[in-house]
Amino acid sequence: MANLTITVDERLLKQARMRALEDGTSVNALLRAYLERYAGVGDTGEALSGFARLARRSAATSGPRGRTWTRDELHDRTDLR
């Protein structure tokens, strides 16, 4: 792994460290996760890429004319009880 040096206000860093501690993490871990999401890599990027691969290989369709729903069907909650 490479090191990264950034410059931030001392009060900002102190507040970020306190909040990270409350959340059970570190500022370093937060920044790493943010950069992974920003760059499109890591768990989220890999998951999205995997989903896209599965979707492309899928033979599932909504039929020859496509499936449409009525407003009532879309808002039906009877199966959720």
Short summary of the structure?
The chain is mainly α and 81 residues long. The chain contains four helices and no strands.
Q: What would you note in describing this structure?
A:
This protein is mainly alpha-helical and 81 residues long. The protein has a domain of 49 residues. It has four helices and no strands.
List its traits.
81 residues, mainly alpha, 0% strand
Tell me the fraction of residues in β-strands, as a range.
Answer: under 5%
Coarse shape: elongated
The largest sheet, given as strand count, sense and whether it forms a barrel, is: none
How would you spell out the order of helices and strands?
A: HHHH
> Which stretches are low in confidence, meaning pLDDT under 50 for 5 or more residues running?
none
